[in-house]
Inverse folding.
């Protein structure tokens, strides 16, 4: 633990500055000219305390003009909890019988009074009303509440009620902004308020905001409880990301982790993925201090951050330090280093790490193999890539679509061993592999180069059978392959299909057909296609051999 706290600051230097500002509001001083007004205020308050009904109030004060200032002063005279019901009655009576449209000051003073008297349902009702009325003014209500906070002798619970009301009104973005705004003014919300906000945001499927709120909670040291964690687990489930992080932690810790560790690991990983290195390390340090994440997971995440941002040597130092501290090696970190070596074209080093990983009793997983397949493909090491793909299949794993496509786009197809690739694809599809348009495009292009027209058409019809609607990429490969085989009629048929399906015909398609007709001696059709291409706004490239 102590070592990790030294490692994290070494990764980034963080300076925090969170000034606290509290709004001080002074009660306006009465002037001599307000004596009559003060008398009227006292008369109204006394009448309310005597329990006069609205009719009686109308008779007694019907001729009296009420201003916003007058109403606020009456309310302040009724700010004690014992007078809270009279304050609420006066608020409604003055609006109904005096045709007065209350401003934010009157609303917020009344809300403060009601909260102080624990009349929370009435306070929430007024909050809902004023928030709906001022939905476009982000900070108008909270500023008014802050302004009247001192003079009403209120308590911080009013701000909890404010944010909870925002949550229930589904005004999440404003609610969270107000939450941060209150922090700047020295008011910290209760955990219940944060949980309420998390709950309603999660139900709305606004996952980025859910994680933003959770991260803010840790930053302001409002640490989650079981309710918070359950909400975040629900968000992970709905995102479809829970299994990914459970698997990641299984590879790091080799034991099933608690829900709070899963959630916190996910949060840090997301922050690092987004490039927010400093913030991620700050939050990680907080979690370590509260024992809300495991040391071995923290080491692995720090190694991930160092690898991701190009400091492989320092990442290795962190990993060696982790081993020296008595922690076991894990498949997640090995795969990180394998991926870094593959990305740098250092296939020999990646192969050695793979061997070390297996010698340590660790099982390579799908990402490990995908990185090796991709690395070998980029380095032109065809046979090694194929062997890794076959080893995956022997272990019941299937490569990712991008890794398989990368392999077929390289030397695999150019070497004329496309049949081997096609056979492997058939086996993979039987195991659940889902090919995409690029997969078929690569195969069609390769068979076209070999002149095997029947295989080209077979792959096209297989796509149609699997309801994988061919797009421009496939049609370009298909038409190029058909032209290479001299099947211009079939190529023209494909051109008509493209037009019927409203697939934009590219210059590549036009030029392939134009060149093929020109080479065949049919300059008339080549000229027609050339004119058609130009009429669509496309310009011929240097590859176009025909120019009328």
């Amino acid at each position: 633990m102590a070592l990790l706290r030294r490692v994290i600051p070494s990764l980034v230097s963080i300076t925090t500055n969170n000034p606290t500002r509290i709004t001080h509001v002074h009660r306006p001083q009465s002037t001599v000219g307000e004596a009559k007004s003060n008398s009227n205020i006292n008369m109204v308050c006394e009448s309310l305390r005597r329990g006069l009904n609205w009719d009686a109030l109308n008779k007694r004060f019907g001729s009296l003009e009420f201003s916003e200032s007058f109403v606020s002063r009456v309310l302040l005279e009724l700010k004690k909890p014992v007078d809270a019901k009279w304050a609420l009655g006066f608020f409604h009576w003055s609006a109904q019988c005096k045709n007065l449209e209350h401003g934010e000051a009157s609303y917020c003073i009344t809300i403060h009074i009601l909260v102080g008297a624990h009349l929370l349902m009435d306070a929430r009702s007024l909050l809902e009303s004023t928030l709906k009325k001022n939905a476009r003014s982000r900070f108008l209500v909270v500023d008014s509440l802050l302004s009247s906070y001192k003079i009403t002798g209120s308590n911080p619970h009013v701000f909890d009620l404010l944010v909870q009301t925002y949550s229930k009104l589904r005004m999440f973005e404003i609610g969270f902004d107000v939450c941060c705004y209150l922090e700047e003014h020295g008011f910290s919300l209760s955990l219940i308020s944060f949980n309420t906000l998390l709950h309603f945001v999660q139900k709305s499927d606004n996952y980025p905001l859910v994680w933003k709120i959770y991260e803010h909670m840790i930053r302001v040291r409002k640490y989650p409880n079981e309710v918070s964690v359950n909400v975040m687990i629900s968000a992970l489930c709905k995102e479809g990301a829970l299994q990914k992080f459970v698997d990641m932690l299984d590879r790091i810790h080799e034991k099933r982790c608690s829900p709070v560790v899963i959630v916190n690991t996910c949060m840090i990983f997301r922050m690092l993925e987004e490039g927010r290195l400093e913030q991620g390390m700050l939050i990680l340090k907080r979690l370590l201090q509260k024992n809300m994440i495991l040391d071995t997971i923290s080491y692995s995440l720090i190694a991930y951050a160092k690898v991701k941002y190009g400091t492989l040597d320092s990442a290795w130092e962190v990993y060696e330090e982790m081993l020296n501290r008595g922690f076991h090696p894990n498949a997640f970190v090995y795969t990180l280093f394998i991926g870094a070596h593959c990305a740098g074209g250092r296939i020999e080093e990646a192969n050695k790490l793979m061997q070390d990983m297996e010698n340590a009793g660790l099982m390579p997983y799908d990402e490990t193999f995908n990185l090796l397949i991709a690395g070998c493909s980029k380095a032109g090491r065809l046979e090694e890539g194929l062997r890794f793909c076959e080893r995956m299949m022997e272990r019941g794993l299937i490569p990712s679509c991008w890794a398989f496509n990368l392999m077929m786009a390289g030397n695999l197809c150019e070497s004329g061993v496309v049949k081997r690739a096609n056979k492997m694809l058939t086996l993979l599809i039987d195991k659940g592999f889902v090919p995409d348009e690029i997969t078929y495009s690569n195969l069609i292009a390769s068979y076209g180069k070999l002149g095997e027209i029947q295989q080209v058409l077979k792959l096209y019809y297989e796509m149609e059978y699997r309801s994988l609607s061919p797009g421009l990429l496939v049609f370009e490969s298909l038409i190029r392959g058909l032209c290479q085989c001299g099947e211009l009629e079939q190529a023209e048929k494909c051109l008509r299909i493209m037009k019927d399906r409203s697939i934009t015909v590219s210059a590549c398609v036009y030029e392939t057909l134009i060149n093929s007709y020109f080479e065949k001696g049919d300059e008339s059709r080549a000229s027609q296609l050339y004119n058609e291409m130009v009429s669509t706004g496309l310009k011929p490239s240097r590859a176009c051999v025909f120019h009328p």
Remarks:
- The radius of gyration is 35 Å.
- Confidence is low (pLDDT under 50) at residues 12-28.
- Residues 213 and 446 are 51 Å apart (CA to CA).
- Residues 35-49 form the longest helix (15 residues).
